[in-house]
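FAQ: What does the model actually see?

It sees only this:
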Amino acid sequence: MTFKDLNIIPPILEGLSKANYTNPTPIQEQAIPAVLAGRDLLGCAQTGTGKTAAFSVPIIQLLSESSKGSKAARHIRSLILTPTRELAIQIADNIKAYSRYTDIRCTAIVGGVSQKVQERALNQGADIIIATPGRLNDLINQKRIDLKMVEILVLDEADRMLDMGFIHDVKRIIAKMPNKKQTLFFSATMPPEITKMVKTLLVDPVKVEITPVSSTVDRIEQSIYLLENGKKQNMLNHILEDKSIVSALVFTRTKRGADRVTRDLSKINITAQAIHGNKSQNERQRALNNFKSGITRVLVATDIAARGIDVEELSHVINFNLPNIPETYVHRIGRTGRAGKSGMAISFCEKDELPFLKDIEKVIKKTIPVVKGHPYPMTGVPVYVNTDKAPKAAGSKSAYNKSSAGKPAKSKANPARKPKSEWFAKSGQTNNGRSNDGRPSRSNDSRPNSGKTNSSNSSKTSQFNRSSKTRSDRAN
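And it is asked to produce this:
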């Protein structure tokens, strides 16, 4: 099948040809006709399978056809929301390439840079804007952007956009748009939580699922290094001694970690730059461009940039830290093995990350091969094995305690022991001169001339009282 078979108009076909697009990918084959037909769409496909063209091409065509012969001022008729600046800029570049022979204009609205340039682009008129939620909300609040004419809404990387961190921003933006519009969801992963939002935002959507949920690309060779704590940087340095690794994208969990890895690599003369949320947009774009051009050998990134990095012929992705969300692993390694090419995904795992590894393997339904024979092997029993055994050990200990506690309890429970009144009666004494609880009454104790017998009885009473009190305490 070719793009021409999908009823794409000639100007867009020419743009696709100029961008070296020949045949549509599976998600493009299924999504483009549905979008052209005006249907809402829920698309699930692995990263690197062509989702951007799957929604961009039909949007350009729909907007081009509806604006023919119109001399009205340009309004924002399509909004594409993305989670990261890099992804927004990448989509904008692609749309400009696809629409170069049409009348459609697009611009990217992202944070991290001065908004003056973006304001000028909006004043000149834009049919499509590709935006991150933060900067878009700022411009909406400043009344610089009007979304009342939006006809098509796209949420790219919908799973990230609709998680708890973005949901309120997305809802505020959607509230500024018409109720009647075409809505497209595209995502590399499809967690169950997204279903609730789909029911409220999509109307009778066409579902396009090219691969199983959260599956990983088969052509990516995956491996895991089980490392002793604190040896990840040493292992990374060791791996990068291999000069055949021309470029590597390294993922860390934190911004500070990304900066630390970058500094340590620079110390051994490996060119590296970091890209994360604390960097300005210009710094991030410069680092990405240096990496793409080969000036920088290693790009160290946090997950915020994971979905916006598209580097051709990237051979290696290295997970310096395993993500605690399995779907994030899919996105990370999806940076390599793109457009039919092969790639390698290497992950480092310390003891406290072993539960993350189990979760990842459960989601991707594969066991990641463990690399052996490296200089920094993990020692000791894995953490999750200890955790699994802990309940048994606790149960065993509890059973022992119950057993040992039970034996003294049986010896204390003496059925032959008699009440105090029977003790006193057995000793040949009566209750005369005693209170009801068996203690000597004050009147008897206060008699100065009670005689020898009384004194002997008083002594015996005191002895019995102390004995009964002691035995009573033991019983309790």
